Amino acid sequence: MRLTDREIVLDSVLLKKGHRLDVGLELNALPQKNLQTTAKPKTWTQQEANLLQTSVFYWRNKNYQHQHHYLFSDPKQVFRYQRKGSQNTPLGIFKAGEKITYHHADGVETFLFEPGFAYEVNQQRERLYRNQTFYH
Question: How many Cα atoms sit within 13 Å of 98 on the Cβ side?
């Protein structure tokens, strides 16, 4: 996990099929068993910025007619967008070229993810705007 001033790495986690995993860390009592911490600068490194720029989906906030929107590439992990504010909203992690499904009150749209852009989507088209949130 990347925090403001450090990175925390868990070396092992027990996963059980059908069970949810909750992780809680006491930051004032680090290091803990099975856990490594590394100091990091308070700004993204170039490598971190590049990884985020090529994987985070940004929804461009507009005056959409409907309040709730749903986005996913895998139906087991759905991102819900609720209109608020005027900034671009990060909605999830996707791979370049991955097929994304967008559900809204008027229907369903599908398109391929192109990293580095903020998206506006309607029934006729997807519109992409250059997004440089993570560039130094």
Answer: 17
